[in-house]
Amino acid sequence: MVSIEFDGCRPRIAPTAFIAPTATLIGEVTVEDGASIWFGVVLRADVGPIVVRARASVQDNAVVHTSPGAMMVIEEESCIAHGAILHGCQVRKGALVGMNSVVLDGAVIGEYALVASGTLVPNGMEVPDRHLVAGVPGKIRGPLNGELTAYVETAGPEYYKLCQEYLRQGIGVMGKPLRKRRTR
């Protein structure tokens, strides 16, 4: 893990969080208990704070930043999928932001809402709790139901279990390097 102090602020990481060795955390970043920051993630809090709440996950190659004076929050059990870009927004409890999505300043993703992969959520858009947003630009497609509800509700707990397994194997504990493979 790369942890960089910026303007007197350094990342604060709970001892039970999983931080992948290739993640980069800059400035006023807070990562709470059981949260997971995966490989290649950049959390750049140089102009405003970034908070990743308990058991939330920010997955491979996601980028999180904010605007001057704004606070970026990813709430409990939320999942930010691979390659997503979040800028100055709020992601409420249990929400799932799909792969390669972009969520812009002032947007609010409601509790247990789903941002479909590849969606552009424009500035200031509010996605209601338990609704699907999809498209470029994103449009509310309606309430979640059935399989999509189950998918969103299980994503956070599944990633929490996975991060616990990485920690059990000694990978990523506060930036601990990956173990070398045993040779036979």
Structural write-up:
- The protein has 184 residues and is mostly beta strands.
- It has one domain: 3 Solenoid (UDP N-Acetylglucosamine Acyltransferase, domain 1).
- It is 12% helix and 35% strand.
- It has one helix at residues 146-168; strands spanning 2-4, 12-13, 18-19, 24-31, 36-37, 42-52, 57-58, 63-65, 72-74, 79-80, 85-87, 90-91, 96-97, 102-103, 108-109, 114-115, 120-121, 126-127, 131-134, 139-143.
- The strands form two sheets. Strands 1, 2, 4, 6, 8, 9, 11, 12, 14, 15, 17 and 18 form a twelve-stranded parallel β-sheet that branches. Strands 3-5-7-10-13-16-19-20 form an eight-stranded mixed β-sheet.
Structure characteristics:
single chain; 184 residues; mainly beta; UDP N-Acetylglucosamine Acyltransferase, domain 1; 20 strands; 35% strand; disordered C terminus
